[in-house]
Write a structure and sequence with these properties.
By secondary structure, the chain is α+β, with helices and mostly antiparallel strands. The protein folds into two domains: 53-285, Immunoglobulin-like, CATH 2.60.40; 298-380, no CATH class. Helices cover 19% and strands 29% of the residues. The protein has helices at residues 17-37, 41-49, 74-78, 215-218, 298-320, 327-336; strands at 55-60, 86-87, 100-106, 110-118, 138-144, 150-157, 163-170, 178-179, 188-194, 206-214, 233-242, 245-248, 251-254, 261-264, 280-285, 348-351, 356-361, 369-373, 378-380. Strands 1, 2, 3, 4, 5, 6, 7, 8, 9, 10, 11, 14 and 15 form a 13-stranded mixed sheet that branches. Strands 16-17-18-19 form a four-stranded antiparallel sheet, with helices on one face. The two termini are 33 Å apart.
Length: 381
Amino acid sequence: MVPLSWFVFRKVSHQDPADMIRRCLITSLLWLAADITWAQPIQDWIRMKAQTPRGYQCRRTTTPIAIDGRLEDVAWRQAPWTQEFLDIQGPHLPKPKFDTRAKMLWDSEYFYIAALLKEPHIWGTLTNRDAVIFQDNDFEVFIDPDGDGHEYFEFEMNALNTQWDLRLVKAYKDGGPALNEWDIAGIKTAVHIEGTLNDPRDVDRWWSVEIALPWRALGQYSLQPSPPVAGDRWRVDFSRVEWQIDLSSGRYVKVPKKPEDNWVWSPTGIIDMHRPDRWGIVEFASSEAPKRAIRPNDEDAIRERLMEVYYLQRQFLADYKRYAASFDELVPIAKAAGLTWNEAETPRLWKTPEGYVATLQASPNSSTRWHVRQDARLWKE
């Protein structure tokens, strides 16, 4: 879903005026949500920090995959499922009503994604490409190849196999923008339905999706080898938007004034998918690689410390209308929030014309340094 949206709507030739008005209304409401979200940035961080990114070993396939939505290929039968999706805010929220799981594979041409969404009433209404797909129940993919929080991709599809793809220069909370005119050239998708679409007279079982994302398209802005090299880690997440529905005159209608549910693979801790630092960790592996659990590593711990500085700075900016010039100025906010630091974890802050850069050395004997700046870009050199 796009909860903090600001779009440049250039692909509007196929949209009627009513649709454009609807988009503008959604955009206005989501900007209001953005203001609310940033009222207490450090409280957002505390909820986000409680969520450990999930991991998945994505193995290379040596057998062909037919993109038909059925997930019956030998390669898919051998690929493990992810954990069941949770509420976007984390496992302390009630378990989703319907199960959702995903799988991933890769080869020299594509990054393959499959998902199975259990659903007793399968429906869809949107048929125009690049419509706001999350206004239907949908499945969504988020990919940040180099994990810097910038230049990431979003893809959404509904049970009608209608698609919406866009590229984010940076997250909406940091000013975006979302480039809605960008297409994933060469993408292949399919949907299979165990039940009947848009027919409330029976009870359906599930719908499954299959996606083949070409490395050539993802590599345009990935700043990473694309296709990846075995051992590379990308930040990836999946989301399922589910609306409450009623029956009216023999058709499905959304329950008025009821917000959607957001069920995800790796929870962000708050109702906003556009927090790439909390997405899951996908490690690409060869077809012969031994199976192993993928967990955050030492680099992820450094990244987390720097993102903590980012949220402390956002809180300082909200309180004092400027960024802190030294870490000492952030200490009172950190202590009040119950955040602890030791000397080795204390970053250096550098003021810049745009804001600041915070830097941490990877280890005492390492020449590698990690950095974060005011727009949440996270990188090492």
